[in-house]
Design brief:
Helices cover 38% and strands 22% of the residues. By secondary structure, it is α/β, with parallel strands linked by helices. The protein folds into 2 domains: 4-250 and 462-484, Aldehyde Dehydrogenase, Chain A, domain 1, CATH 3.40.605; 254-443, 3-Layer(aba) Sandwich (Aldehyde Dehydrogenase, Chain A, domain 2), CATH 3.40.309.10. Bound molecules: nicotinamide-adenine-dinucleotide (NAD).
């Protein structure tokens, strides 16, 4: 099979230049390099911004009905290409096919929400704020906006951003993760097929060079970012210093609190699904399991029974429930927490390094980036397996003695993305919903990702800026408001009056 080559998408077509630098693309299931992705220089980013700036001038003035028509067409195309997009994701990220198709489906929900843009952009109108004077509010596009996205959701996270940005009348430049860049180019082709004018959606690939060029470019009005906390902080500080509106979503350490009265089978199912799904490489994955005693021992036993039955293997194999990790370096880093966790006093109750890999071609998958589901027990709050975002298939069990201790752990965490409580006590759940200092809370739901018509985002070190993604907050982020006060002269307007305008 010939190696693939992924390049930028600028002004409605693939870039035809020769890249100064490229990155390797891997198949995580085999560990083999399968192709190369071009890395943009400042010049290529400038070219994309120039194309977007030109396109934004007319796209921002096009009727809402025409914008919605393009969005509806895009929705149909993404839906009919779901398997193709999912296969690209699996081949570069490693996640299993059903999971990859699931992320396309969740991204599509934002496209569907954006199809309602004529309604979403409706302003207010007040007749006769003063006699013969009316006021109304409108929201207008910003111009050119950029999105910088992580490796773990190469389709869904960009789709948290660009459907609404484009529906609001902006032109968009996407800088996807260099680790799994192909899905973004297929989405660009589908936009073109849907009838989006050239230059409204552009993709530049690359690393810090491309990101910095976007963050400092004077013609970019706003930046949406999703990724790790250190880079989110950097993007927020650099972008705002350059006068941009920035929303930067960072990393996470999501807790699942299990109270003694919880249904332990439900809790064990949820912990395994949310801890090990997508190999733990989800920003809403559960990584800290807070068991309020005396239920830790029976809960861990139930988790062990379930983990033993999990099928780990290539994402393209329909029998696999969990695929490999994204890179060899990331797999090694995640595995290192099993050793340091134990050195720092935890007990290794499940060692994922020994979990078998099921593959029809074991020679091909021998070099894959495998690590099975692992569980550290008796983890304390100072253990690095608890304080760090591991971002892999490792559950850290902290044994708490009371509800209050569990809530303290949740609220002392520097992160505030997601949290879940498992209990049959409605009063305790209600109190927890109120007390948890976290952006997204689940009650007997381990991964409480909001639907597209709500907004997604965390608190504390999981969000820099004050606006969450999609939903009405997304519409606000990609537009700016204007209030108009208007009077049409009639003969009784009253002539010159130097007094302060008051209602009359
Ligand atoms: P990352 O921060 O390494 O990369 C994110 C983006 O930033 C990529 O496009 C990358 O090319 C770019 N980037 C990386 N280093 C940079 C640098 N030094 N300067 C400028 N740009 C740089 O994140 P990742 O490893 O791709 O993704 C995993 C992380 O994303 C995890 O921390 C996860 O929690 C987080 N995440 C958060 C959410 C959320 O909603 N809060 C969602 C998904 C992922």
């Amino acid at each position: 099979m010939s190696a693939k080559h992924v390049t930028h998408w600028i002004n409605g077509k693939p870039w035809t230049g020769t890249a100064e630098r490229q990155g390797d693309i891997y198949d995580p299931a085999t560990g083999q390099v399968t192709g190369a992705v071009d890395f943009a220089t400042i010049q290529e980013v400038n070219d994309a911004v120039a194309a977007a700036t030109e396109a934004a001038k007319s796209w921002g003035k096009i009727s809402l009905a025409k914008r919605a028509t393009v969005l509806f067409a895009f929705r149909e195309l993404v839906k009919s290409h779901t398997e193709e997009i999912a296969a690209l994701i699996t081949s570069e990220h490693g996640k299993v096919a059903a999971d990859a198709a699931g992320e396309v489906a969740r991204g599509l929900e934002v496209v569907e929400f954006a199809c309602g843009i004529p309604h979403l952009l409706k302003g207010g109108f007040s007749e006769n704020v003063s006699t013969g004077v009316d006021s109304y509010s409108i929201r207008q596009p910003l111009g050119v906006v950029a999105g910088i996205t992580p490796f773990n959701f190469p389709a869904m996270v960009p789709m948290w951003m660009f459907p609404l940005a484009i529906a609001c009348g902006n032109a968009f430049i996407l800088k996807p993760s260099e680790k799994d860049p192909s899905a973004s180019i297929l989405l660009a082709r589908l936009w073109a097929e849907a009838g989006l004018p050239d230059g409204v959606f552009n993709v530049v690939h690359g690393d810090k060079v491309a990101v910095d060029a976007l963050l400092t470019h004077r013609d970019i009005a706003a930046v949406s970012f999703v990724g790790s906390t250190p880079i989110a902080r950097y993007v927020y500080e650099t972008g705002t210093q350059h006068g941009k509106r920035v929303q930067a979503l960072g990393g996470a350490k999501n807790h699942m609190v299990v109270l003694p009265d919880a249904d332990l089978d439900l809790a064990a199912d949820a912990a395994v699904s949310a801890g090990y799904g997508s190999a733990g490489e989800r920003c809403m994955a559960i990584s800290a399991l807070v068991a309020v005693e005396p239920i830790a021992d029976p809960l861990i036993e139930k988790i062990k029974e379930r983990v033993a039955k999990l099928t780990i293997g290539p994402g393209a194999d329909r029998r696999s429930e969990m695929g490999p990790l994204v890179t060899g370096a990331h797999r090694d880093k995640v595995a290192s927490y099993l050793e340091t966790g134990v050195t720092q006093g935890a007990t290794l109750a499940i060692d994922g390094r020994t979990h078998p890999v099921s593959s029809d071609d074991s020679a091909a998958t021998a070099g894959g980036f495998w690590l099975g589901p692992s569980l550290l027990d008796n983890v304390t709050a100072d253990n690095t397996s608890y304080t760090d975002e591991i971002f892999g298939p490792v559950l850290s069990v902290v044994r708490a003695q009371s509800y209050d201790e569990a809530v303290r752990l949740v609220n002392d965490s520097p992160y505030g993305n997601g949290v879940a409580i498992f209990t049959n006590d409605g009063g305790a759940a209600r109190r927890f919903v109120s007390e948890a200092e976290i952006g997204m809370v689940g009650v007997n739901v381990p991964i409480p990702v909001p639907m597209a018509y709500y907004s997604f985002g965390g608190w504390k070190a999981s969000l820099f800026g004050d606006t969450h993604m999609h939903g009405t907050e997304g519409v606000h982020f990609y537009t700016r408001g204007k209030v108009v006060t208007s009077r049409w002269l009639d003969p009784s307007h009253g002539g010159v009056n130097l007094g302060f305008p008051v209602n009359s």
